[in-house]
Specification:
The complex is a heterodimer of chains A (323) and B (690). By secondary structure, chain A is α+β, with helices and mostly antiparallel strands. Chain A has ten helices and twelve strands. In chain A, strand 4 and strand 5 form a beta hairpin. Chain A is globular and about 60 Å long. The termini of chain A are far apart. In chain B, strand 12, helix 5 and strand 13 form a beta-alpha-beta unit. Chain B has 690 residues and is α+β, with helices and mostly antiparallel strands. Chain B has a seven-stranded mixed β-sheet with strand order 3-5-1-14-11-12-13, sandwiched between helices. In chain B, strands 9-17-16-15-10 form a five-stranded mixed β-sheet, sandwiched between helices. A five-stranded mixed β-sheet of chain B has the order 18-19-24-25-28, with helices on both faces. In chain B, helix 9 packs across helix 10, helix 9 runs parallel beside helix 15 and helix 14 crosses helix 15. Chain B is built from 16 helices and 28 strands. The model of chain B has no long low-confidence stretch (mean pLDDT 97). The chains are: A alpha+beta (323), B alpha+beta (690). Chains A and B meet through helix 10 of A and helix 3 of B.
Chain lengths: 323, 690
């Protein structure tokens, strides 16, 4: 672990200025991912700027929806009665993530910024373009069980590990960010990037930009569900996951919003599946067609071909349950 | 006032749950130094250069030991332990340097700054049954014949009315005790003290003394508590040698070394993957005519460990034509070693799934098939069993589990979207003990003290040994103290092979008898007597084993293939149970570990690099609480007059044996998918789902 200095500034603006001015600085919140990376030599910041006590820990009403302070712990967010009643998919996603002790530490602002769990990314003795650009992708031709089938490139096939982020992508959330240039708002579906030829960049955030809140619009009509498929019953990353919102009237889909986890470099909003669903009869055949439309672009790797039928079956299962 | 049989609480329980128990790394010592190993980043080659200057100049680093600067060890016979002696790299992750620093953080940072270059050689880490360099080891662990055979298996298979011939695979598994492999070491006045997390202080001392060329009495090993080991701490691994080496380089300064979780995947042993070609021939009524198991597994190029995977198949069922073989591939991989029930655990997977396959072929209940092939004597040695209550375990388990009326058809039950099924398998583990363990009994201050160099691996020795001593001395258990985990106490065998309680307990019984013979019932303060275990002559006459029956219920999600096991039930015949509370914990732990093997555990070795890539507990899955909602262990009141004076059989390992087969058989019953390679994961059952 490389030595680092530790700052605990008095306010968010100072924290942002400090990190923005120092290319070797990083924000520290719950630390559930960053501290591991320090020990493993993946992250080597010279300065940690602690924002744990600076960002809001409040959940407030806003424009018919909710605004969640970046400092809200995942366990508090999952337990909030407004979240549980109005955004059940979000509560389910939170409770499907990690373990109780980790959820107590992890924050709303930090969780979507956790980095991939690709075993090669996590091991500094193996090449990884995300960790060391230009060194190569070890996952291609290697252990691919948790890797992408959608939107990957020859440079990186890693997946984004957050469950919370998948639900937020389906819920049309947006992210409020404070940077050295001031505040901006980013639709959640545009926060994360596909790898392309710069897989080292997970998100569109610039160095020094800090997530201060996540805003949820008014909950959509219909029913919601987050379904995570994993190898063990708890404390495991998703092989695939589905966040789905479905509004059905008289056997016809009025609206659908769907996001996938565990299959891409970002929470994957399934726009094409949604298009197939809207206005179609709420039947297994439609659901399968929706999955097929989205997954026509799937490019599985040797070793994770099973994710295509698995995701198809999971989506059909969830939509059937919601209809 | 018999203490044996009482469910006494752990004597060390409060100390452990309150954090008062000191484990090896936490041994309070003044101003310790800390070590961090540097590991090879190639799987095979020679070090051409090793750059240590960047680490050496760090504030707080005392020195960096490499092959150039390390002391020459007195014995390099065990090449796993011959660390930093030459330039050669035999597996990825092998230790090539050691940084010693004032804090663990500085040591770790220093280790990151040590950079080695290598002349790489082509490496080979892929196990397969088709290799042309497989060889037969001279013996298999610990000293079984490599191959056995009687009759003509090929002819019997050819003429069998029903034949099952299948290949089964078990994965590479890593022991992951909660407490890592850790040592605090101090070299002082030409003597070495190791506070080491070990399953045997005396075996550890013997090994380390040899490696360093020291008389045994100049090495003291202390280990009051162990946070699990499962065999991985049965013998010292390289971390102990490194700690001792660092201590000798810094006399008078205690040094601490704990492997990280990732390092344990290369340096602390593991269970070899196995490929098991299993053949069963039978008559239509279910009598086995042929039974053969040919096993292929791996070892490391620098040190042979031949797991005895085919051994349980030699004694389990009667069949006139029999054959077992072991073949090894010596690869550029870390050194395999003991892991809970080596041999029996993987070695009952193939046979017990094959028995289920045969039962299905025959249209016979799998319990009934096993009952029909129950041998009267050990089929290969011809010796009678000292006790064998497998059938009773199967029957009692069936009753408790609700097996009667089971619909044998696979894939026809569905509840709330989950396909359900049940499975059964048998388990077995040898009942061993070892000669040469000594216990000492002393009367002092109105109490009895028992000293023995045993180790409490977390299994309850602190609690059960006083129970045994109390009964042997015929005094209340509250009046007995034991002292364990220190080479200052008499020599004791390793906590391994499920023989700790039997071996140590026998020594204690003999010492108690010697004490009473010498001093009667009214001893004086300071009176003491000791005794040493000898060979049990009954071992020549009887085959000695514990048996069990494992039952599992599996649920497989009809849409996603997710596999869950809501119920596991085991019934064991394992001799006299000294403490039902600690015994139950052991059975439950073994069964849960077997469930973990069935569904989760899989060390994924990437042949391009030669190391286990999922080397942490986020990626190497073990069963968590939610995976094991209902695990039940029961036992028969078995009396075995032959195994030892106590009638005690080991229970540490039998719980894991057979569990994975029971789960695999339940998954078949649920889905119709016969998964023959572990772990059973959803992608393997997905193609069979409706």
């Amino acid at each position: 672990m490389k030595p680092f200095s530790y700052d605990a500034p008095a306010d968010v603006a100072t924290a942002v200025r400090t990190v923005a001015a120092d290319p070797s600085a990083a924000f520290l919140a719950g630390g559930t991912n960053l501290l591991d990376h320090l020990k493993l030599g993946i992250a080597r910041p010279a300065r940690l700027v602690d924002v744990t006590n600076l960002t809001s820990t409040e959940i407030t009403e806003r424009d018919g929806g909710l605004s969640i302070g970046a400092g809200v712990p995942n366990s508090d967010l999952a337990a909030d009665p407004r979240v549980r009643s109005r955004y059940p998919a979000l509560a389910e996603a939170l409770l499907a993530g990690a373990s109780g002790p980790l959820r107590n530490m992890a924050t709303t602002g930090g969780n979507p910024l956790q980095r991939t769990r690709c075993v090669y990314f996590q091991d500094v003795t193996t090449p990884c373009n995300k960790r060391t650009p230009g060194s190569g992708c070890s996952a291609i031709g290697g252990y691919t069980r948790y890797h992408a089938i959608l939107g990957a490139s020859e440079h990186c096939v890693a997946t984004h590990p957050s469950d919370l982020a998948v639900a937020l992508a389906a819920l049309d959330a947006s992210v409020r960010v404070l940077g050295p240039q001031g505040e901006r708002t980013i639709p959640f579906t545009e926060l994360h990037r596909l790898p392309g030829d710069t897989p080292q960049r997970d998100t569109v955030l610039e160095h020094g930009e800090l997530i201060t809140a996540i805003d949820l619009p008014e909950p959509p009509a219909g029913r919601q569900r987050y379904r995570k498929v994993r190898d063990r019953a708890s404390y495991a990353f998703a092989l695939v996951s589905v966040a789905a919102l479905l509004d059905v009237a008289n056997g016809t889909v009025r609206d659908a919003r769907i996001a996938f986890g565990g299959v891409a470099h970002k929470p994957w909003r399934a726009w094409q599946a949604e298009d197939v669903l809207r206005g179609a009869p709420a039947t297994d055949a439609t659901f399968r067609a929706a999955a097929g439309a989205e997954l026509a672009q799937a490019r599985p790797l040797p070793g994770n071909e099973f994710k295509v039928p698995l995701l198809t079956r999971t989506l059909v299962s969830v939509l059937r349950e919601l209809s | 006032m018999t203490a044996i049989g009482k469910p006494l609480v752990r004597r060390d329980g409060t100390r452990k749950v309150t954090g008062a128990a000191t484990y090896a790394y936490e041994t309070p010592v003044g101003a310790p130094l800390f070590c961090h190993p540097v590991q090879a980043t190639v799987a095979r080659g020679r070090i051409t250069a090793i750059h240590t200057a960047d680490a050496e100049v760090l504030d707080g680093v005392l020195d960096v030991i490499t092959f150039r600067t390390a002391e020459r060890l007195a014995s390099t016979e065990d090449r796993e332990l011959a660390v930093l002696q030459d330039r050669e790299v035999a597996f990825r992750g092998q230790v090539v340097g050691l940084v010693i620093a004032r804090t663990s953080e500085i040591a770790r940072h220093g280790a990151e700054l040590v950079f080695a270059t290598y002349a790489e050689s082509a490496h080979d880490t892929e196990l397969s049954a088709d290799r042309d360099d497989l060889y037969a080891p001279e013996k298999v662990n610990p000293a079984f014949p490599t191959d056995t055979g009687t009759g003509d298996v090929d002819a019997a298979m050819a003429s069998a009315e029903v034949a099952v011939e299948r290949t089964y695979r078990t994965a590479m598994y890593h022991n992951n005790p909660l407490e890592p492999h850790a040592t605090t070491a101090l070299w002082d006045n030409d003597s070495l003290t190791l506070w080491d997390s070990t399953q045997g202080v005396h075996p550890s001392r013997k090994t380390i003394a040899k490696v360093f060329g020291l008389p045994a009495e100049r090495v003291r090993v202390v280990c009051p508590y162990v946070g699990g080991g499962f065999g991985s701490k049965g013998l010292p691994h390289v971390n102990v040698v490194l700690a001792a080496m660092a201590a000798r380089a810094h006399p008078g300064r205690p040094v601490k070394l704990a492997l990280t979780r990732q390092q344990m995947f290369a340096l602390a042993g593991y269970r070899t993957p196995t490929i098991q070609r299993m053949r069963l021939g039978a008559t239509r009524d279910g009598s086995l005519t042929a039974l053969a198991l040919d096993v292929v597994e791996q070892t490391s190029r620098i040190k042979e460990f031949a797991e005895q995977t085919a051994v349980p198949a030699r004694m389990m069922y009667a069949a006139p034509n029999r054959r077992t073989t072991h073949r090894l591939a010596a690869l550029d991989v870390p050194v395999p070693s003991w892991m809970r029930a080596p041999g029996e655990c993987p070695g009952m997977f193939g046979p017990e799934v094959a028995m289920d396959e045969l039962a299905y072929e025959l249209g016979l209940d799998p319990i009934e098939l096993r009952v029909r092939n129950e041998p009267g004597v050990d089929p290969e040695s011809g010796r009678p069993f000292s006790s064998r209550h497998l059938v009773e375990c199967l029957r009692e388990g069936a009753r408790r589990f609700g097996w009667d009326g089971r619909d044998p058809r696979p894939g026809v039950r569905r509840e709330d979207g989950w396909l359900t099924g049940t499975g059964v398998a048998a388990s077995v583990y040898p009942s061993s003990s070892r000669a040469g363990t000594t216990a000492l009994v002393r009367f002092s201050g109105g109490r009895y003290a028992v000293e023995i160099g045993a180790a409490d691996l977390g299994t309850g020795a602190w609690t059960v040994l006083p129970q045994i001593a109390a009964d042997a001395l015929d005094v209340p258990v509250e009046e007995v103290d034991v002292a364990l985990g220190d080479t200052a106490y008499p020599v004791a065998a390793v906590a391994g092979g499920s023989m700790g309680t039997a071996t140590w307990g026998s020594a204690i019984v003999e010492a108690a008898r010697a004490f009473r013979d010498k001093f009667g019932r009214d001893p004086d303060d300071g009176d003491e007597a000791d005794a040493t275990t000898g060979d049990n002559p009954a071992r020549e006459k009887y085959a000695m084993y514990a048996f069990g029956a494992q039952f599992a219920e599996a649920r497989v999600h009809a849409d996603t293939g997710e596999i869950r096991v809501p119920r596991l039930l085991g019934v064991f015949a394992a001799g006299r149970i000294v403490n039902p509370r600690t015994a139950r914990s052991q059975f439950l732990g073994g069964m849960t570990m077997g469930l973990s093997m069935a569904l989760h555990e899989d060390s994924v070795l990437d042949p391009r690099f030669g190391h286990v890539v999922n080397h942490d507990l986020a990626e190497y899955h073990i069963a968590v609480n939610a995976d094991a909602p209902d695990v039940q262990a029961h036992w028969l009141d078995e009396e075995d007059p032959h195994v030892n004076a106590l009638g005690v059989k080991g229970i540490g390992e039998i719980g894991i044996v057979g569990t994975a087969a029971a789960v695999a058989n339940a998954v078949f019953h649920a889905t119709g998918a016969r998964i023959r390679d572990l772990p059973i994961t959803l992608d393997k059952v997905l193609p069979a789902l409706p």
